[in-house]
Design goal:
Elements lengths: L1 H7 L4 E4 L1 H6 L1 H9 L3 E4 L12 H15 L3 E2 L8 H7 L4 E2 L4 E2 L9 H11 L6 E2 L7 H17 L8
Parallel strand pairs: 1-2, 3-4, 5-6
Helix pairs in contact: 6-7
Length: about 160
Amino acid sequence: MLDTLDHYGIKATFFCVGENVARYPDLFEQIKTRGHQRGNHSYNHLRAFRTDLAGYLANVEKADKLIGSKLFRPPHGELTYAQYRELRKKYELVQWDVISRDYNAKLSPNEVFDIVRKGVRKGSILVFHDSLKAEKNLRAVLPEFIEFCLAQGYKFDVL
């Protein structure tokens, strides 16, 4: 993904799971070194509705010690009102309007491309995943999607 973004001269915002940053510090350093923005995506990719307030906040703070960003994107887009109220005191909370579903093994690269192609518009925040589950779809779709967007006159930017 980093090489593809470099090829097109595009910077992205990577919302990182803290345990992955701890497990792959060299990759996290590459994200920073290559000029990409980083954001917090919790330490363990918690489900907000299944986690009490204190536990959720502690998990986000644990990730922040590694990631060091004022951006936070909640896993699955979920937050209770109490979590939202507390997190917005310290973080800029980020949601998306197009999720690629690239992680879904039942979807082909063509289906993933159609999802993002049909959903993108000026100002969109799109979610792609740099996980093993998403790898097949991401490798096929990301370059094609970037070229589609550039041909439509879209610009890419970080948050």
